[in-house]
Amino acid sequence: MSRYVVGDIHGCGKALRTLIQTLDLTRDDEIIFLGDYIDRGPDSRDVIEQLIELRQQCRMIALRGNHEIMLLGVALGGCDPGKWLRGGGAATVTSYGGAVKK
């Protein structure tokens, strides 16, 4: 069994895919993600989809980072959407096919 810790993916789906392929994970391996899956990078949607798929391949722990917490704050109320969008959230919206009005 191997254990890996990964943080700050920030929408970089291609880099995550390369990392996962390089690790060649087995069911007994564990990977702990420290959050910040979304925002800034070009493909937050792909990152999230990869993480969902990865749960079938190995043991996985996914913690929330400040970017996920900001998105939850926007979705549930209490966080300024503009602050999240300026902090990288606009890239996440775009990766899901949305558009941000300027």
What does this structure look like?
With 102 residues, this protein is α/β, with parallel strands linked by helices. It is 47% helix and 12% strand. The chain has 4 helices and 3 strands. The chain has helices at residues 13-23, 44-54, 66-76, 81-95, and strands at 3-6, 30-33, 59-62. A 3-stranded parallel beta sheet has the order 1-2-3, with no helix packed on it. Strand 1 (3-6), helix 1 and strand 2 (30-33) form a beta-alpha-beta unit. Helix 1 (13-23) runs parallel beside helix 2 and helix 3 (66-76) crosses helix 4. The protein is elongated, with a radius of gyration of 14 Å. The protein starts with a strand and ends in a 7-residue tail after the last helix. The model has no long low-confidence stretch (mean pLDDT 96).
Gap from first CA to last CA:
49 Å
Residue share in β-strands: 5-15%
Radius of gyration: 14 Å
Biggest β-sheet, characterized? Answer: 3 strands, parallel
Shape: elongated
Tally of helical runs: 4
In total, how many beta strands? 3
The averaged pLDDT comes out at 96
Percent range of helical residues: 40-55%
- Strand arrangement, major sheet: 1-2-3
Structural class: alpha/beta
Any low-confidence stretches, pLDDT <50, length ≥5? none
Topology order in helix (H) and strand (E) letters: EHEHEHH
